[in-house]
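Query structure, 455 tokens:
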């Protein structure tokens, strides 16, 4: 028998492969899907079926790609939508996988036609339920995708899905959601790797409600909506292009890279210190580990993308970007910034300082001229505290609120580590701000008397 969870870094996306005998099925595969056929082949199985829990909003689902490689049949949820591939799932449909059986359970709420899939063991007893984005560890799927005018309706559907369809399956049934902690599909997913319906019934804060009305009131809220969600919805309806049909990004010399950059967006995936020291002018900084979380906020789909990376091998960055549907990746800087400098090309830089330096400057001389931009999220401010006098603009909304940042003051950018602060600095620098300093580190060393931390 085969049962594995595949975790996709950055997106906190979970997909699953289940097999028995010589057959296997995959639930919510990712786009770079080579891992699933390898797992199946190693177990002496072939993938015959692909199941989707819902039309995903935060990544390109790999069903079309995996079907092209394996010949597997695709079954998609949200049957009310006009899909360009596969067959629509209906409540109660069943699939045999060797001695095992999988049953579709309609669990709307996150989307109108969301499906969960119950895996029964060889004796026919409920064993594992794949809940998609309906039920997570410690949270539930957001209900605002159809607009706030329908959020209460969707929350009501989700209540019925959870309390009338999933929880009655039994406390001992293992719950396997489509996302873990860090996903944008819910506000506060817990970091426990595995869970059961019983654990969630007892410990999930969203389920500790007195009535359906109480549940609806707590769930019908608007969360951040990254702009790339619209492109994910489109691609996951028509079916994303096969990866084999996409041209491979080319290694470019410094001079060719500079020429191509005039008509492209340059994405630099190096760490914040490397970018701050020297970067291609006009480039956007998103460190490699932050690409899944932030590329969808700041990269356009209608422009070509050029990469600058740390190692000279941008394969991982390319895979992460293609999971988000960024397919217009034309090339990368061969030899990295060393080649750029060797060719005598101009570079830009961003000043950095640690928290101790900033506290001294604020207390001794610069408080009147300094303007502290804090790009942390609201939950971080609540947990760690606010810097008195700092201006809070969450990183994801900086482009639309950039007019609030003064041009005649020295801007100190703070995030808690320096990574997101450098992203913010690159955004500001591309828009003409130059008097910038990124603060490295978090609040642990903060000691300013004039600008104390308020908790």
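Result returned for the query:
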């Amino acid at each position: 028998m085969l049962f594995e969870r595949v975790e996709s870094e950055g997106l906190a996306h979970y997909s699953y492969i289940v097999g028995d005998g010589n057959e296997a099925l995959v639930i919510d595969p990712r786009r770079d899907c080579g891992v699933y056929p390898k797992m199946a082949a190693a177990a002496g199985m072939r993938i015959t079926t692909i199941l989707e829990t819902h039309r995903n909003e935060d990544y390109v689902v790999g069903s079309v790609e995996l079907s092209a490689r394996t010949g597997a049949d695709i079954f998609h949820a949200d049957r009310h939508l006009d899909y360009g591939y596969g067959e629509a799932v209906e409540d109660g449909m069943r699939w045999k996988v060797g001695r095992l059986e999988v049953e579709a359970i309609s669990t709307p709420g996150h989307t109108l036609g969301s499906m969960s899939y119950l895996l029964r063991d060889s004796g026919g007893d409920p064993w594992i339920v794949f809940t998609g984005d309906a039920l997570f560890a410690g949270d539930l799927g957001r209900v605002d995708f159809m607009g706030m005018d329908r959020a209460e309706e969707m929350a009501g559907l989700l209540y019925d899905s959870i309390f009338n369809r999933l929880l009655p399956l039994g406390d001992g049934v293992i719950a396997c959601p489509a996302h873990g902690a860090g996903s944008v599909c819910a506000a506060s997913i817990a970091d426990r790797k595995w869970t059961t319906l019983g654990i969630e019934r007892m410990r999930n804060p969203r389920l500790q409600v007195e009535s359906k009305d109480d549940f609806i009131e707590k769930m019908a809220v608007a969360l951040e909506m990254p702009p790339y969600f619209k492109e994910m919805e489109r691609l996951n309806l028509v079916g994303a292009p096969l990866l084999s049909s996409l041209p491979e990004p080319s290694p470019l010399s410094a001079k060719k890279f500079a020429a191509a950059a005039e008509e492209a967006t340059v994405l630099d995936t190096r760490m914040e210190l490397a970018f701050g020291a020297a970067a291609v002018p006009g480039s956007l900084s998103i460190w490699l580990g932050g690409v899944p979380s932030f590329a969808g906020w700041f990269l356009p789909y209608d422009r070509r993308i050029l990469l600058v990376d740390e190692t000279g091998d941008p394969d991982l960055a390319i895979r992460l970007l293609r999971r988000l549907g960024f397919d217009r990746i034309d090339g990368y800087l061969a030899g990295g910034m060393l080649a750029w400098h060797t060719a005598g090309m101009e570079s830009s830089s961003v000043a950095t300082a640690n928290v101790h330096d900033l506290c001294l400057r604020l207390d001794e001389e610069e408080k009147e001229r300094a303007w502290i931009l804090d790009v942390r999220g609201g939950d971080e401010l609540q947990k760690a505290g606010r810097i008195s006098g700092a201006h809070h603009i969450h990183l994801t909304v900086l482009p639309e609120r950039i007019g609030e940042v003064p041009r005649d003051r020295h801007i100190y950018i703070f995030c808690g580590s320096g990574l997101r602060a450098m992203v913010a600095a690159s955004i500001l620098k591309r828009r003409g701000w130059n008097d910038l300093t990124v603060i490295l580190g978090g609040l642990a060393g903060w000691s300013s008397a004039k600008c104390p931390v308020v908790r």
